[in-house]
Amino acid sequence: MPYLLQVDFPYQGPWGKEMASASRDLAESIAGEPGLIWKVWTENQAMGEAGGIYLFDDLPNAEAYLAMHSQRLKSFGVPVVNAKIFQVNEALSRIDRAPL
Amino acid sequence: MPYLLQVDFPYQGPWGKEMASASRDLAESIAGEPGLIWKVWTENQAMGEAGGIYLFDDLPNAEAYLAMHSQRLKSFGVPVVNAKIFQVNEALSRIDRAPL
């Protein structure tokens, strides 16, 4: 059963293409995380926030990633990490074309 | 350029299959919203929360949906709606297999 992890935190850039260059190695590392199905990278320069939406194959993998990633973000100087883990309602999501 | 809308709110059920039955008509309506690419339906019975992660084709469609949906949730008795809209960093997301 897939689980969704939503993460956001205060962030001051870089943004857009510069963010993509700065975080390419990190994205390649994340692609190999156990149980990761996909991650959408999010950013909002006007609000000064960034984050990610992740789909994992099960709850233990989502929880283990969140614990590791929270520590990593703090090591980058991120002061607070907002995170929630949800089950996915697959029947409703499929009606709305969700890529599960 | 795709925009991601994350929404969650206090929710007391129904959950799982009962939630799917109760919200099937709503999901079919949401599938036809202007600019919606997909929605993942989320739920967490232990935390008493539910929500959705949406991908829209542009910012005006995401903002218009959020305004409408917030009013709808309030009409359902939802006391508070947590919502954030983000740009998607497409280069990083594609490295992590994101379905954009």
TrEMBL record, chains A, B:
It holds the Pfam family ydhR. GO terms for molecular function: monooxygenase activity. It comes from Hephaestia caeni. The lineage of its organism: Bacteria, Pseudomonadati, Pseudomonadota, Alphaproteobacteria, Sphingomonadales. PANTHER family: MONOOXYGENASE YDHR-RELATED, PTHR39169. It comes from the Bacteria. This is Putative monooxygenase ydhR. Keywords: Monooxygenase, Oxidoreductase. InterPro entries: Dimeric_a/b-barrel (IPR011008), YdhR (IPR014910).
